[in-house]
Design goal:
By secondary structure, this protein is mostly beta strands. The protein folds into 2 domains: about 270 residues, Jelly Rolls; about 130 residues, Jelly Rolls (Sandwich), CATH 2.60.120. Helix content is about 5%, strand content about 35%. Strands 1-16-20-13-10-15-8-7-28 form a 9-stranded antiparallel beta sheet. The protein has a 6-stranded antiparallel beta sheet with strand order 6-25-24-27-22-21, with no helix packed on it. A 4-stranded antiparallel beta sheet has the order 2-19-4-3, with no helix packed on it. The protein is globular.
Length: about 425
């Protein structure tokens, strides 16, 4: 077991030597008595540069199972929904409490907000999770979208059809649409996740930045082939058209002995991000911290941008260092993985917590941060011991009923700006 390097590479990997056919993807009689199955993450006729597919050579094909039956969705929601009125107010939540009874990763998912419409392959849903128990004979795949998982507490051991991915806090993992997996944990875990209904995540274009910077393709790791040959009774939960369904299998679905292609899970260490920053004046847009983007047909307007705020040098002359107060067309859901976020030094925004600032809702540094940063000596400073992120989306993120009624909702969030009193003086 191991990893291969590179984002979107066409790779080949086999857990048993000789499992991959030579010269033909689907021979009449595949090697080692395996079945051939292709998984397509894009339309067949998508341009070559955007086409996502992989060939799998597996012990049994995915059609071998008893019929799926509808089960309860729990706290998982999918767009479009309008459970409660969507407020223009700024929203912030404390961390989701860790469970006190046995709870798997799948059982511990709660949807916070979402926008767009999964039935038209637009938009996203934003989730948090908290768990303490491994999935053993239960597996999951998402037919509605790909999953970008952001651990905040504890490590995830993710066993997928195409290999094993271990992901720690300050790393991320992306599971493509349709790929089956289960999650094992050692102790309590907590984190964030966005479900992408639109175009698959890719690296952003660099434009005037040039050839280098941001996330490098070589730092994305793809798992090598791995499989388990187990029989018995297994449950496969799928999220399909917004609802959960359960299928019963007499074998583990993680039975892919070899595969090749460019459609596979991957992980990335956020600490390897190459920051680009100002060295003169004015705070740059958060776009320069984009790790991954899900583009739309509208140039420059993403379905989702995944943005991080990692440790970095702040070097700027005669200018305010944190983000200025702003109102955006895009919609911002923020989370904190580690440390303190430099625009919220007054407290309340802690690791595991989150905030939501929707379209044209004013937001920015709290009063304590504003006061300090307008008086601080402007010398080069390195921001350290921090890792925050943002899911920036094209569509307004409508909070769920759970998000608006949970005790973790900070009803006093608005007060952090009330110390911003008028200082205007006529000349």
């Amino acid at each position: 077991m191991g990893y291969m390097s590179g984002f979107g590479n066409d790779v080949a990997t086999e857990a048993v030597k000789g499992a991959l056919p030579q010269g033909q993807n689907s021979p009449q009689k595949p090697p080692l008595g395996l079945y051939v199955e292709q998984i397509n993450g894009t339309a067949f006729t998508a341009p070559r540069s955007a086409n996502k597919r992989s060939w799998m050579y597996r012990i049994r094909p995915s059609v071998v199972h008893r019929p799926y039956e509808r089960i309860n969705n729990g706290l998982i929601r999918s767009t479009p929904f309008n459970e409660v009125e969507t407020t223009p107010n700024q929203l912030r939540w404390s961390p989701l409490p860790l469970p006190t009874k046995p709870t798997t990763w799948l059982e511990g998912i709660a949807t916070m907000a979402g926008g767009g419409d999964l039935t038209t392959h637009t938009g996203s849903a934003i989730h948090v999770y908290a768990a303490n128990t491994s999935m053993t004979d239960t597996f999951f795949y998402n037919a509605d979208g790909e999953l970008l998982i952001v651990p905040q507490l504890g490590s995830l051991h993710i066993l997928t059809e195409m290999g094993i991915v271990d992901v720690d806090p300050q790393e991320i993992c992306v599971i493509p649409r349709g790929v089956k997996f289960r999650v094992e944990v050692q102790g309590p875990v907590r984190g964030y996740m966005i479900e992408n209904y639109g175009a698959p995540f890719r690296l952003p274009d660099l434009g005037p930045i040039g050839a280098n910077g941001l996330a490098y393709p070589r730092d994305f790791l793809i798992p090598e082939a791995w499989y388990e040959e187990k029989t018995g009774e297994f449950a496969v939960i799928t999220k399909f058209q917004g609802n959960l369904w359960k299928g019963t299998y007499d074998h583990s679905p993680l039975n892919v002995v070899a595969w090749h292609g460019n459609y596979a899970p991957y992980k990335y260490d956020l600490r390897k991000f190459q920051c680009i920053n100002t060295v003169t004046f004015d705070h740059p847009d958060p776009s320069i911290y984009t790790v991954l983007t899900s583009p739309t047909d509208t140039p420059g307007t993403a379905n989702i941008d995944f943005v991080i705020f990692p440790p970095r040098w702040m070097v700027a002359e005669n200018t305010f260092r944190p983000p200025w107060f702003h109102r955006n067309f895009m919609n911002e859901y923020m989370g904190l993985i580690h440390g303190i976020y430099d625009a919220k030094e007054g407290g309340g925004f802690v690791p595991g917590g989150s905030s939501l600032h929707n379209c044209m809702s004013g937001h920015g540094p709290d009063a304590d941060t504003y006061k300090r940063m307008t008086e601080v000596e402007l010398k080069p400073v390195k921001i350290e011991e921090t890792m925050a992120f943002m899911f920036e989306t094209r569509f307004v993120s409508r909070p769920t009923a759970f998000a608006m009624t949970t005790s973790e909702l900070q009803n006093d969030y608005w007060e952090c700006w009330q110390g911003l009193v008028p200082e205007f003086k006529k000349p």
